[in-house]
From TrEMBL:
It comes from the Bacteria. Coiled coil: none annotated. The keyword Amino-acid biosynthesis does not apply. Residues 151-336 form the AAA+ ATPase domain. SUPFAM superfamilies: P-loop containing nucleoside triphosphate hydrolases. This is NACHT domain-containing protein. The keyword ATP-binding does not apply. The chain crosses the membrane at residues 45-64, 468-488, 494-515, 536-564, 570-589, 609-631, 643-667. It holds the Pfam family NACHT. Keywords: Membrane, Transmembrane, Transmembrane helix.
Length: 729
């Protein structure tokens, strides 16, 4: 909330706590020694309740009115590069992940051709944008393009599929990393699985106010007022975007989120954002929204920014970035292709001769990707007229087919893992099914640890139903056990009350699972549980966040009950809320450790189950043991049996809901893997299969897991075109 908005919120909490203290004296000592004014309040209960209600409503209204984006204390602060050790850690992480792990292993290093650029003035928007035709070819590389004064360190980089956009982006990152005092590049992939901003009001926020003379003055005034009323919404959009970027970067590079926010918001920002894969946001509305948000960021942040996208997908949004310059990577000319093939040597003489005889073939190989795949496929082979005809007919599809036939028998032993025992035909069938599954869920990378029920909705729509039935059976057994004990030790009415409290608490807990937690950057308990991992830490912040809500709810319920039933009934809401909060806090403590995530899926699932079961057992023990302690705070002995069973029922109900939420990531992952293996979509050893495909240079390791060598290969495998076994020789 904004500065100044914390005071009313604190006041609201103080009013509620004071009301609880005055209306709920616990024990004989508090009753015999009343607080100042408490005797008068007992004699004038109605007036006292009205006074507290008015004060609470006023403080709550002020707190609600002042809600909004926070004024960050580090806005505009200069960053001391020498004293900031996290910048050095970030620099090392970027170099390890993207330069050593990606660029140095990229296939396009095989074809180190110098790429040309063409200015695209029609790809950027703004009041100062020149109107006219494109300028033509630019005799610069990507480093010079980014450093040009007219670019203003904000560049849009466009190109056809396989044109080398990501490689050029990483060449720029490599150059920035080589500068000792230069900014640190941060590579972020704008894929569908990472772009999670929910800003439906953005189209209204960005609406311009018309000032045409023909528009009625009153209409113009109303529009102006409406636009000014949305200025606060713009601030919310910007803050939400910066928070999202900081969270993504902190998760990827294992640096504190607060430091990332400080770097992004600094007047002289020490980082440059390199945003790749705008076109990988498949949904057009989401992609358009992303373009608009990035344009807003350009007005707020002083960081350098480069955005990469396919040309067609970028212009499809009909929303252009408000950046300094835009450039499109030009295709390789037939002369470029011939020059490279000539330098490559005798093993590519046949391919070079075929290109000289068929200029259309040279045009087909006009991107670094296509030329690299052709080099790897036809190196040392005779490219006959029949092969050329097939290439010209089926184009990139046939080129990928020929590449697969060449790559599958190859073994480079890069991964160090055992070779899978499948034929080439079986491997191709698995690859096709994997590609279709990835296309169905609109993902360009897959990690075994990240597989969940969202991946198998086409394969098995009923996957996970066994876990659901097991949970319902466990809930029924727990409810029956609590009811039986209450019936034996109390009466039938108490048994029914216990069942209702248990069911209501569990149901409310499950309903609240998707609500954002305080202090968790908009993440809910379901978000914090939706993963499997082999390395864990205790997240005290998450535990405290889960601890806050139930006692506050119980306090409110206790006050409501106390108004009707008197002071003796106040603990009926307060004490169950405290117990529910403690139970939920214990379950929420475990969280995955930062750092490397891509470990063995089996060990991650096994460790996740152990951690969740152990935490659940401790939480259940808390929910069953604490009621005996908490009932000592009930001053009326006649109320203690009733209070005990209500506490047990609420604790067990909170545990049932919380334990189910904490296990949701594990059972979703386990159910998905079982469905994938049972349907023969992938073999049982999924990790080994992905490593095998990586070793054959069909897939590649990414930050998020494994991806196909290129998106065009994924699209080809997912299509209905059968893999031809025609010889490529």
């Amino acid at each position: 909330m904004r500065r100044g908005g914390a005071l009313p919120a604190v006041a609201a909490i103080v009013v509620a706590a004071t009301a609880a203290a005055y209306f709920a004296p616990l024990g004989d000592f508090a009753a015999a020694n009343p607080l100042p004014g408490q005797r008068w309040m007992r004699e004038h209960t109605g007036l006292a309740l009205l006074a507290f209600a008015a004060a609470g409503l006023l403080a709550g209204a002020l707190a609600w009115q002042r809600r909004g984006p926070a004024e960050r204390s580090h806005d505009g602060r200069a960053v001391d590069r020498d004293a900031d050790g996290y910048l050095d850690d970030l620099r090392q992480q970027v170099h390890k992940i993207w330069i050593t792990g990606f660029l140095d292993c990229s296939l396009e290093r095989i074809v180190p051709a110098r790429l040309g650029f063409r200015e695209r003035r029609d790809a950027i928007s703004g009041p100062l944008r020149k109107i006219g035709d494109d300028e033509g070819e630019l005799d610069v590389d990507v480093v010079e393009l980014f450093a040009a004064p007219e670019t203003e360190r904000r560049l849009v980089l466009l190109g056809a599929p396989g044109a080398g956009k990501t490689t050029q982006l990483l060449r720029l990152a490599q150059h920035l990393l080589s500068e000792e005092d230069g900014p640190v590049p941060i590579v972020v992939t704008l894929s569908a699985n990472s772009w999670r901003l929910d800003l439906p009001e953005l189209q209204h926020v960005l609406s311009a106010v018309r000032t045409d003379q023909e528009v009625d003055e009153a209409v113009r005034e109303r529009r102006r007022q409406a636009y000014q009323a949305r200025v606060e919404d713009v601030e919310k959009v910007l803050d939400a975007t910066i928070d999202w970027l900081a969270w993504e970067i902190s998760e990827l590079y294992a640096v504190p989120q607060r430091k990332v926010e400080e770097w992004l918001r600094a007047d002289h920002s020490p980082v440059v954002l390199l945003l790749d894969g705008l076109d990988e946001i498949r949904d057009l509305a989401d992609r358009r929204r992303c373009v608009r948000v990035l344009s807003l960021l350009r007005t707020r942040l002083n960081t350098g920014m480069v955005v990469c996208s396919r040309t067609a997908e970028y212009f499809e949004t009909r929303s252009h970035l408000r950046f300094g310059a835009a450039a499109e990577i030009l295709p390789l000319s037939p002369a470029n292709v011939d020059e490279y093939l000539e330098i490559a040597g005798d093993e590519l003489v046949s391919l070079r001769t075929a290109c000289q005889r068929n200029p259309e073939l040279a045009t087909l190989l006009n991107t670094p990707l296509a030329l690299t795949v052709a080099v790897l496929t036809y190196q040392g082979k005779d490219v006959t007229d029949e092969v050329v005809a097939q290439l010209l007919t089926n184009r990139l599809d046939h080129l990928w087919e020929a590449y697969l036939q060449e790559a599958l028998p190859r073994q480079r032993s890069r991964t160090g893992l055992r070779t899978v025992s499948h034929t080439d035909e079986e491997i191709v069938a698995y690859l096709r099914k994997l590609a279709r599954m990835m296309e169905d869920v609109q993902q360009d990378s897959v990690a075994v640890n990240s597989l969940d029920l969202t991946w198998v909705w086409r394969i098995d729509p009923l996957a996970g139903r066994t876990a659901t039935w097991l949970y319902l059976a466990a809930a029924a057994v727990a409810g029956a056990g609590v009811a039986a004990v209450a019936w034996v030790q109390a009466d039938f009415a108490m048994a029914w009350i216990s069942v209702l409290v248990l069911a209501g608490t569990a149901f409310a807990n499950l309903l609240a699972a998707d609500h954002p937690l305080p202090g968790q950057d908009g993440r809910s308990r379901m978000d914090l549980s939706d993963f499997v991992d082999s390395r864990w830490v205790l997240d005290v912040t998450a535990g405290c966040s889960a601890l806050i809500i139930p006692p506050v709810t119980g306090l409110f319920a206790g006050l409501c009950v106390g108004i009707v039933g008197g002071a003796e009934a106040l603990p009926l809401g307060v004490l169950p809320g405290v117990l529910a909060g403690l139970t939920s806090a214990v379950i929420s403590l475990p969280h995955r450790a930062p750092g490397e995530r891509h470990r063995s899926a089996r060990s991650a699932a096994r460790m996740t189950l152990w951690v969740r079961v152990l935490t659940g057992a401790v939480s259940l023990a808390v929910s069953l043991w604490l009621p005996s302690l908490l009932i000592t705070f009930v001053w009326d002995p006649a109320w203690r049996p009733t209070m005990y069973f209500i506490l047990v029922a609420s604790g067990v109900g909170m545990w049932l809901g919380g334990f189910a939420i904490s296990l949701s990531g594990w059972w979703s992952h386990t159910s998905a893997v079982r469905a994938i293996v049972a349907s023969n979509t992938l073999p049982r050893d999924i990790d080994g299969f992905l490593a095998h495909a990586e070793d054959r240079v069909i897939m590649r390791k990414t930050v998020l897991g494994h991806a196909f060598l290129h998106r065009t290969l994924q699209s080809h495998l997912a299509s209905n075109t059968a893999i031809s076994r025609t010889s490529s020789a």
